[in-house]
Backbone:
């Protein structure tokens, strides 16, 4: 199977983006679960193409070097047309894998290792493991808990998105009223956006070696702490002066309580660093 993907990826320069996307998705759909391909089957986008390429390369251990050096006809994969185990949405439907059915495999796992058996039959656990492969920092014991919560929220958002998307299509086919379709579509879009917001944070943290984007409310405090901890002494002094002005400005401003809280929190962090790291002293007011 790996060789099939190598052929497609090696021909990328000669394919239009949508055609490349469709060919990769068609091949991937033959071996992946419904959960793995559902999002991609909803339609092409440049970002989804990059994600699909990344996922396929990771699953089949395909390096950029292999793609660049690939020559059609060489090193054909003898397993490329063998039946492959597919677990669709949690229920095990399978043609055959080496003469064993999915139930045979599940039974063997249950006998050998109950934990593996639970993972095999638990799509959420499988998705969690997949995310830990995609975002290795989640395996670090020092990984902030906020990111682990974000992963759980991402999985939930995707599940809700998939369910609402299916419900919307069924309602449209049944000729439901426009107001109901609008509400369903609104919920579907909301869950999709939640999933994408979480992905953006996780991608940024991974790709910048630990920098926090901080657009998601869950990570706002972590972002603020990281920004303050990276400031120089001069930056801290300037930030404290500006912070004092902002706190006084918003202290009694009606409807600006959130700005007062934000600037107060930053001022406390800045002052704390100046006192701890630079031994500065300030009059209490």
Residues:
């Amino acid at each position: 199977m790996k060789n099939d993907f190598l052929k497609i990826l090696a021909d990328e320069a000669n394919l239009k983006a949508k055609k490349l996307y469709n060919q990769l998705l068609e091949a991937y759909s033959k071996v992946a679960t419904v959960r793995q391909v559902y999002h991609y089957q909803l339609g092409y986008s440049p970002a989804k193409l990059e994600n699909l390429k990344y996922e396929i390369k990771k699953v089949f251990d395909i390096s950029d070097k292999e793609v660049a050096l690939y020559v059609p006809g060489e090193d054909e994969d003898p397993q490329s047309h063998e039946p492959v185990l597919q677990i669709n949405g949690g229920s095990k439907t399978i043609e055959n894998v080496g003469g064993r059915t999915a139930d045979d495999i599940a039974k063997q796992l249950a006998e050998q290792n109950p934990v593996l058996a639970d993972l095999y039959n638990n799509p959420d656990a499988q998705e969690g493991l997949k995310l830990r492969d995609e975002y290795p920092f989640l395996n670090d014991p020092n990984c902030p808990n906020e990111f682990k919560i974000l992963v759980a929220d991402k999985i939930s958002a995707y599940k809700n998105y998939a369910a609402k998307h299916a419900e919307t299509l069924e309602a449209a086919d049944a000729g439901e009223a426009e107001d109901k379709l609008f509400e369903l579509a609104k919920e579907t879009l909301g869950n999709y956006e939640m999933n994408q917001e979480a992905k953006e944070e996780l991608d940024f943290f991974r790709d910048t070696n630990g920098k926090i984007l901080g657009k998601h409310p869950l990570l706002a405090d972590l972002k603020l702490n990281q920004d303050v901890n990276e400031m120089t002494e001069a930056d801290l002094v300037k930030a404290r002066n500006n912070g004092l002005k902002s706190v006084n400005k918003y202290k009694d401003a009606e409807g600006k309580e959130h700005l007062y809280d934000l600037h107060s929190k930053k001022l406390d962090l800045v002052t704390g660093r100046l006192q701890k790291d630079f031994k500065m002293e300030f009059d209490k007011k």
Summary: The first strand starts at residue 87 and ends at 88. Residues 84-121 form one domain. The longest helix spans residues 178-207. Confidence is low (pLDDT under 50) at residues 74-100.
